[in-house]
Amino acid sequence: IKLCGGGGQSEYHPDMGAGLRDQAELLQELRLAAERQQFKLMYQPKIDARSLQVTAAEALLRWHHPKRGMVPPSVFIPLAERHGLIGQIGQWVIEEACRQAQQWRTRGLRMRVAVNLSGYQLRQDDIVERIEGLLRQHRIPPERFTCEITESVAMEDTQVTRRAFERLRDAGVHVSIDDFGTGYSSLASLRRLPAAELKIDRAFVCDLEGSSDAQSIVQAIVQMAHTMGLRVVAEGVETPAQRDALVAMGCDELQGYLFAKPMSPQALELWATDDRPT
Ligand code: C2E
Ligand code: CA
Ligand code: CA
Ligand code: CA
């Protein structure tokens, strides 16, 4: 089966993929950006497939480079992971998302806030304590906070990740398995991970219209997830046809450009409180 969008892999950016010297330079600038916290979070809503209410806002990291412009996370996050910067950056993401969540709550917006956790963060001994501390500090109920962890990270080093999943669950945090379907997990290994949500990778959603294989896979994932009591979110929904197919297959929540692109917190607040066409 052909996966469009390269199976969730990063796109090629000629400007960024250039020689080693450029990579070293970018790394140096990333270190500075991490120290000076030159990052922003954009938020993309997840929508309840039936009511079309906003259920959550996923925080997506943005680095606006003074000269290069917007450096995509697919370029700088792998770099940060390779060079030990992701701990610091990831901590800032959690703090900032909690701060934003508190602000939204005081304004009556009750959606969850979701952050993406890297494997490095999941292996930090005190990651759950850090998250719990920030949730307390910002008076956010843990079940209103989602940690998105990719299937491939969840399946590497299963002892450690399973323990982290369990501790997040015990803390009451909502755990989501991201990019599902690309990591070839077995049903049995998925069952051992206490998660609340499963996100079907964009590559399958993108293929829905053309490929009956993709349709069967998505249908099987939804049924399996529901059997295990997981909510199913489809990411990367771009067309009404994809939306309709996903709703017909029983997906619980939808996310994608069809509904909204990642937005500034202010824009999302307006969008979430606005009357939207259905
Ligand atoms: P992801 O977690 O799978 O996030 C979804 C990506 O798909 C986002 O790209 C989003 O902007 C994009 N997207 C959403 N809807 C659509 C759609 O309808 N069509 C298409 N073509 N794309 C859509 P983005 O923001 O560039 O992020 C890329 C990846 O970088 C994320 O994939 C995630 O793995 C990683 N990332 C982003 N922020 C963070 C972060 O704070 N921490 C960590 N560890 N990783 C992050
Ligand atoms: Ca993805
Ligand atoms: Ca995600
Ligand atoms: Ca994803």
UniProtKB/TrEMBL annotation:
Domain of life: Bacteria
Protein name: EAL domain-containing protein
Species of provenance: Ideonella lacteola
Domain EAL: 23-276
Shown stretch of the complete protein: 205 to 482 of 508
Keywords on record: Coiled coil, Membrane, Transmembrane, Transmembrane helix
